[in-house]
Design goal:
single chain, about 350 residues, alpha/beta, Rossmann fold, seven-stranded parallel sheet, 13 helices, globular
């Protein structure tokens, strides 16, 4: 059977429509959720009605995790925040209770330790009917080659970025099935879009989170359990202070408050989201770029960030290890690629 020009055009049109839908659905869901606040102020169900009165947020003492916990509390949901930083947990829990009048519990757990922490978490959550689980905790470090990483660091990043999202989901799913409702939010990263030289393990773990999330969504939909994968681009928090460049990404970056407020609006409305409208546009532009070029650009940017980090270390600036939710500089610079040429960061052979 021979294809005519007309038939090929129809196939091309369908392929284009499918591509646009797949890549713009996040933006549409975000805009729809925002517009509903004005055109449908009295929505039929609150988050508590839809999912339950309690939420668990890993990595909830800082950054996106803290912002998400506060946003849920603002909507009347009690929260349990989990982190390895006890003082920050206590302060965050008190802040939430004082601001919103909801209950805020905390659990100290270092996910980098692996299997040993989950029995303690399970015990602490035994009497709490968890309706929302936010798998937010993440771990990374400054860019460097895989061969230069210590084994301890590699196990830490695998335990935190892969182990936590997997085991915490397994821990909570049975009770969600029993209650016949629930939501699991898995925070991935824009880094899942391509292999990331000098951040190889981090990027691979975030790709894992996306794959796991989409599979879980299919498995759990029949039990009325929502699974959402979140792929932020750049959220500006104090944890990116190791890089002056990242810290100053004011145009492309988003504040935690603005980001989490937008992100929570999408809960229960889409299985994948970037969380914020500018992130959706940047993500779309990134996907239009050939993968070989994405890899080349992110490698050059990672080298640039590593150079800045090492310079800061030489100048004896103090930086703690990065415990992050998600960030990506690739998307910011791919749009402003002229800046890269001017600074001669990218050099083609």
């Amino acid at each position: 059977m021979k294809f005519t020009i007309s038939q090929l055009a129809k196939v091309g049109l369908l392929a284009t429509a499918a591509f646009l839908y797949d890549n713009f659905k996040s933006l549409f869901s975000i805009l729809k959720a925002k517009l509903e606040l004005y055109f449908r102020p009295q929505l039929p169900q609150s988050l508590t009605d839809k999912f339950g009165k309690w939420a668990v947020i890993t990595g909830g003492s800082d950054g996106i995790g803290k912002g998400y916990a506060k946003e849920l509390a603002r909507r009347g949901i009690n929260v349990v925040i989990i982190s390895h930083m006890k003082e920050e947990l206590i302060a965050t829990a008190k802040e939430i209770e004082n601001l919103y009048g909801t209950e805020a519990k905390w659990i100290v757990a270092d996910f980098s330790k692996g299997k040993e922490v989950y029995q303690h978490i399970k015990h602490e959550l035994r009497d709490i009917p968890v309706g929302i689980l936010v798998n937010n905790v993440g771990c990374a470090s400054y860019p460097d080659e895989l061969g230069n990483r210590s084994e301890d660091f590699l196990w830490s990043i695998i335990n935190v970025n892969v182990g936590a999202v997997t085991v915490m989901s397994r821990l909570i799913i049975p009770q969600m099935k029993k209650h016949g409702k629930g939501a699991i939010v898995n925070i991935a990263s824009g880094f899942e879009l391509m292999p990331t030289p000098l951040m190889a393990v981090y990027g691979a773990t975030k790709r894992y989170v996306r794959s796991l999330s989409l599979a879980m969504e299919r498995e759990l939909s029949e039990y009325n359990i929502t699974v959402q994968c979140v792929t932020p681009v750049l959220v500006v928090t104090k944890i990116v202070q190791f890089s002056d460049f990242l810290s100053q990404s004011y145009f492309f970056g988003t504040s935690v408050e603005a980001y989490t407020r937008s992100l929570v609006l999408t809960l229960g409305k889409t299985q994948e989201t970037t969380g914020y409208w500018t992130h959706a546009i940047i993500y779309f532009i990134g996907k239009l770029t050939p993968e070989w070029l994405r890899i080349r650009i992110i490698h050059a940017i990672a080298r640039y960030i590593k150079k800045g980090y090492m310079k800061n270390r030489i100048e004896k600036k103090s930086y703690r290890q990065i415990n992050i939710q998600s960030y990506s500089v690739f998307f910011a610079l791919i749009i402003d690629i002229q800046y890269l040429y001017i600074k001669r960061i990218i050099k083609y052979p």
